[in-house]
Amino acid sequence: MSIIQDVIASAQEKDIGQPEFLQAVQEVLTSLEPTVQKHPDFVKAKIYHRIIVPDRAILFRVPWVDDQGEVQINRGFRVQFNNAIGPYKGGLRFHPSVNISIIKFLGFEQIFKNSLTTLPMGGAKGGSDFDPKGKSDGEVMRFCQAFMRELYRHIGPDTDVPAGDIGVGAREIGYLYGYYMRIVNRNESVLTGKGLEYGGSLVRPEATGYGAVYFAAEMLATRKQEISGKVAAISGSGNVAQYTIEKLLQMGARPITLSDSNGTIVDEAGIDREKFEYILDLKNYRRGRMSEYAEKYKVPFYANQCVWDVIREQNLKIDLAFPSAHENEINGENARAMVKNGCFCVSEGANMPSNLDAVHEFLSSGVLYGPGKAANAGGVAVSGLEMSQNAMRLSWSREEVDQRLQRIMHNIHQSALEASEAYGCKGNYVVGANIAGFTKVAKSMLAYGIV
Question: Hey, which residues does 72 pair with through a beta bridge?
């Protein structure tokens, strides 16, 4: 048994009942096989065994009172996975599906994503099984305050700097940060994704979506192609999906799909600037559903179906895909249909949205495939830039932040491409991104000794 197979087997034995985490471990560790021969010091120090075990995993009770005066109980999590290259950094997710497996998988992926940005940030993730959907502002505030009453003791500007994720937007970050300041009596950079009025960065809301498009453009350039004129499918309708569409429009593409938990819209005429503005109002202010878009613009709405099922069943022709909803939204059958229908570039806005069968299908079909840890690193990259601005007590212009984001995404692409070539897997961004992110962290762990 190889060292990599041994590590995967160990995780399968010890982390039973954690399918998302085990999937991430298998995907990452398998792609690190080429590093074993080149780095025998990693093997001797058992870096491969150590990197799959978090520094600590915190589980806590979150009691709060709803608008009817009833006591509610949720579970809170923070998994601080690895801080070899900087303070722990990773978002908070509020969603009923949250459990230890999902938080561990996200934190594990975050190690390599943060490493790829070249910024000094370690990997972590957290959240709760609380669902903000349908809750009043008062209920969300009381929950956030109860959540922070425990979380505050585990975070700090040089220890752990959380951000937002699914279910944690500007409203939630504001409540969390306000209560943190109240508890510790300090105004410090301990959360990112803050409002501009109290230390946030320009371009942070747009960064993940913009970054996914920038990464797609970098991949396309290797084949002397560009975004302009391409038909794009996007899943989700939250922050990432919205700003993926905005950047695609700016670069001349034609986005045709969006989705939410109720179903998918297909607008083959293209989601133009006017329709995009309607989506921003619908999702961010009225908290409406995509079915309302379908009614307004008289386009098909496929109830209870995801974008990729619709593409398969309706034989929709697409060039580019930006899965931006949630993990494992694309399976092997969907991936085969996407390739058959003309898709030749996939840039992941969500974390691990393609399952292992889908990834295999994309790679074996020669699709330009940008895995989430590389393609969606723009969000955490600008979070890192927010931390820098906070530390220096200054704010950069929108143009400067966007230029820095573009440079970071270019560098991530270059690092992944060069690593894939150096380790004999030219053009395989999965292998390239994992190795480029891993080796930097591994060398830091090696320097610290056995800790």
Answer: 64
Q: Can you tell me which residue has the tokens 């806005």?
A: 349
Domains 3-188 and 207-375 share a fold: yes
Please give the torsion angle defined by the CA atoms of residues 10, 15, 21 and 24, in that order, rounded to the nearest 10 degrees: 10
Q: Which two tokens stand for residue 135?
A: 């809750």
Q: Which two three-digit tokens encode residue 105?
A: 């998988």
Local structure of 51: helix, strand or coil: helix
DSSP-derived secondary structure for 368-401:
EEE-HHHHTTHHHHHHHHHHHHHHHT----HHHH
**What digits encode the pLDDT tens for the residues 369-428?**
999 999 999 999 999 999 999 999 999 999 999 999 999 999 999 999 999 999 989 889
pTM for this prediction? 0.92
List of E strands, 33-166: 56-65, 71-82, 88-94, 123-128, 160-164
Task: Determine the Cα–Cα distance for residues 100 and 59; give it in Å rounded to an integer.
Answer: 8
Q: Which long-range contacts (CB under 8 A, 24 or more apart) does 391-394 make?
A: 391/157, 391/189
Contact between 3 and 48 (Cβ < 8 Å): yes
Secondary-structure breakdown of the chain: helix, strand, coil percentages, each rounded to the nearest 5: 50, 15, 35
Residue with tokens 């607008």: 267
Q: Let me know if 373 is a catalytic residue.
A: no
CA 421 to chain CA mean position, Å: 25
* Closest by CA position to 32, among listed 12, 56, 7: 7
The 8-class DSSP code of residue 159 comes to T
Residue 259, helix vs strand vs coil:
strand
- How many CA within 13 A on the CB side of residue 343? 30
The pLDDT tens digits for 31-45 are 999 999 999 999 999
Instruction: Spell out the residues 6+ positions from residue 299 whose beta carbon is closer than 8 angstroms to its own.
Output: 265, 266, 267, 268, 269, 293
Largest separation between any pair of C-alpha atoms in the chain = 63
**Helix runs in 252-331, H state only:** 273-284, 290-297, 307-314
- Among candidate residues 104, 125, 230, 440, the one labeled active-site is 125
Measured in degrees and rounded to the nearest 5, phi and psi for residue 72 equal -115, 150
- Could you tell me the residue ranges of all domains in the chain? 3-188, 207-375
**Could you tell me which residues are beta bridge partners of residue 18?**
none
- List Cβ neighbours of 9 (8 Å cut-off, separation of 6 or more): 1
Q: How far apart are CA 370 and CA 353, in angstroms?
A: 11
Structure tokens at 317: 């022709």
Please enumerate in sequence order all residues whose Cβ is within 8 A of that of 242, keeping only pairs 6 or more positions apart, or say none.
Answer: 209, 276, 279, 280, 283, 284
Q: Which CATH architecture has domain 3-188?
A: 3-Layer(aba) Sandwich (3.40)
CATH for the stretch 207-375: 3.40.50.720
Quick one: tokens of 242?
């919205």
Give residue for tokens 């942070």: 204
